Amino acid sequence: MEPLLTTEEVAGYLRVEVVTVRRLVTRGELTAYRIGGEFRFMEPDIENFVKSQRVSAEDSRTAVEKFTERVRSVLAFANQEAADFGHNYIGTEHLLLGLVREGEGVAAQALLRSGLDLKDVRQYTVEVIEAARTRSPGTSSGQLKTFMRGVFSSERESDPLGERALTGRVKRAIELALDEARRMGHHYVGTEHLLLGVLREGHGLAARVLIDKCGLQLDPVRELVLQILQEPATTPLPEIPEQAATLLKENEPGVECRRCGARCPEYFRYCFHCGSKLS
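Above: the chain sequence. Below: its structure as tokens.
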């Protein structure tokens, strides 16, 4: 009888949290066996799950044709981030680092208006990557390790999205980004669609950062994206009114808006100057 894998081993292979593996089992997306009070997994079931997460090359090409220049920059940055970490694949965590590094698209604006600091998002992502690296099991079945390497490195030469292979989760996020663009009636895939795709994918390291660490939820972010897209592209921020100086007393601590730099009282939830959510 072939050895069964533990939840921790499967989490390491899939590069997700142990709790995510348990959620997949609960939803019936991943087959598991109860032994005592623990889940155990067979290699073929893990292989089938990974294969089910992959997106066809045709879907990837369709998305690529619609990518804006900003998204192409994000992918280039993601490829570089993966190289800096010594990874031979591009995961959702690298995509998120690419979105943060690009820093000017609608996705970055949505993160800022959600009260986040892009530097903090990057730091959270790096911490999650390092934690996942530490959790990866050092010894287990060689056959599954060989299979997983094949999943993450296949089609590298023909992949149109970068030098490194995309994980199944990234391909799924891109597929969902394409769906978000269709829903909005857009004939392009922008950084905003990519951000929504990562959130909708929901299980990768990037989702853990955005949902668990940053407290974001899909529907509010989608509404914020639509709001940003409806704003005139060239609308300048209004000048800070002179009366604003009376909002804070001398040496009174306040909160600085990430978007416009105005200082607001600590109890303000939104910036009085530009309306952005304060962290």
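The chain has 13 helices and seven strands.
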